[in-house]
Design goal:
This protein is mostly helical. The protein is 70% helix and 0% strand. It is flat and about 55 Å long.
């Protein structure tokens, strides 16, 4: 944490850490939709021919697991890139529109 603070305040890398600020401003949205799996559950409700052919399952299997030839590495990269990056971008779009979830 001190390394991040020094990078933002001393070196002035505010734009590099802006996605973290956006996620912090929409923390309720990210928690409800991502951490609790509401959005992923919505996407899993749509499938083709069988319940194993969902969009989330297909992306996880074909884009991440098959490319890296490892289930553990593929799921880790899926969470890092498909989940965290996606919600950081959604939070950034909402921040640009000045829309925030509050209690």
């Amino acid at each position: 944490m001190p390394a991040c603070v020094s990078q933002v305040d001393v070196v002035s890398l505010r734009y590099a850490f802006a996605p973290l600020r956006w996620v912090g401003m929409n923390a309720m949205l990210v928690y409800v939709m991502a951490a609790e799996g509401v959005f992923e559950g919505f996407l899993n409700g749509w499938y083709y021919e069988s319940t194993n052919n969902t969009l989330v399952y297909w992306v996880r299997k074909h884009v991440f697991v098959k490319v890296w030839h490892s289930t553990r590495v593929g799921i880790l990269l899926y969470v890092l890139f498909a989940q965290i990056l996606f919600w950081a971008l959604v939070s950034g779009v909402l921040h640009r529109a000045r829309l925030y979830w509050k209690l």
